[in-house]
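haha ok so turns out i had the wrong file open the whole time. this is the CORRECT one, sorry everyone. sequence first:
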Amino acid sequence: MPQCQGNKRDGSRCTQSVLAGAQWCFNHDPKRAQRSPRPFWCALLSRRCACALHLKKQLKDLAADVLSSKVGRSEAAVINQILNTRARLIELER
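then structure:
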């Protein structure tokens, strides 16, 4: 079978086989590379990471408010349950 004409990141030749008449594998095809500068899942992951970071900050702030007596323990428990539900939804999206 023909071999892809592309190069890996380390400069070595790609070892993927290609269909007869093709020069590049799916990853090295220049037509495909022009469509999207980065894969769609990168944007999805960065959004999820941003959500997780926001939840971490909210939990940190909640803990500080409980320790400084700005928020009562019972209110903090309910808020923590809501934040836990949001965290589970983020995990479910994965």
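The CA atoms of residues 13 and 75 lie 60 Å apart.
again sry for the mixup
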